[in-house]
Amino acid sequence: MHHLEILVCDRCRGELVAQQQVLVCQACSRTIPVENGIPIFVAPPADLRPSDKLVRGPQVGTPWRKANWLFLEAQVRQLDPQALILDVGAGRGDFADLFDQHPYYLALDVYPYPEVDIVCDLSLANPFRNASLDAILLMNVLEHVYAPHALLAALAAMLKPGGVLIVAIPFLVKMHQVPLDFARYTHYALQRFAADHGLEISHLEGFYDPFSVLTEGIGNLKNAVLPQQPSPQRYAGRLISWALQASASALQALLGPGQTIPPDQARSQAPTGYQLVFRKR
Predict the structure, then answer these.
(1) Are the C-beta atoms of 35 and 111 separated by less than 8 Å?
(2) In this structure, are strands 85-88 and 118-119 parallel, antiparallel, or unpaired?
(3) Is the pTM higher than 0.90?
(4) Among 23, 104, 150, 206, who pairs with 84 as Cys (CB 3.0-4.6 Å)?
């Protein structure tokens, strides 16, 4: 268990020692179960629906997911190869391939997926030493956290001075991984989060993808509005919605999937999501 040196008891901050199938706190005798080599500090949520493993990459998935990959890839190039990195909410290892050259990459989630090193809900318990991490990833995770300030306080404590918290968070994206989808935040909220937790924003961009938003709107039209209409309007609406979707697809093929720009330079305050870097002061 190569990450044991940065872990402490989440209750008393005492030292942990590995025994057969458990970690034991030397100060308070708390025991943390270890399953398949994965310490489980907090039991997984009972209502969580485990995710399937999907192929991810710069040319795979929605425009938002593709933008996330390119953003994180650019941030990873700036990290020291020996940096200690924690991927919070890593799930099935969506971004793990970007860290092949980083030997000190750890994956954390609230569910014991095979790709995970540690199971914990950091908004409920923090088993990491203070100032022990160089970089933390929070990629499409913050919207699933019911107590964001508790999580951000823990992450800020875990970062070394000058360490970075690399974040992607959707805004105009439909609910996903329900029922554990709780919030959407503007960049004004993200700026307040930074100030509240001793962080500064060193990079902030919005991803603006009109085609995905249009597709979601057409989905609402088909699934919520048209079924309530009498037959003539319903059939006409289906024909027009098909034409709208075809036009959106043609525009996307012509213009590309979207643009990434700082939100204060955008005339439209309707981004698909934000990508940013918090740095610990």
Answers:
(1) no
(2) unpaired
(3) yes
(4) 104
Residues 6+ apart with CB under 8 A from 131: 157, 158, 159, 160, 161, 163
Mean pLDDT by 10 residues, the chain (281 residues): 85 96 97 96 94 88 94 97 97 95 96 97 98 98 98 98 98 94 97 98 96 88 93 93 90 89 91 97 92
Give Cβ neighbours of residue 258 (< 8 Å, ≥ 6 apart).
63, 67, 207, 208, 209, 210, 211, 212, 272
| CATH T-level fold of 63-207+263-280 | Rossmann fold (3.40.50)
Tokens representing 253 are 């093929």
Tokens for 127, please give them.
């088993």
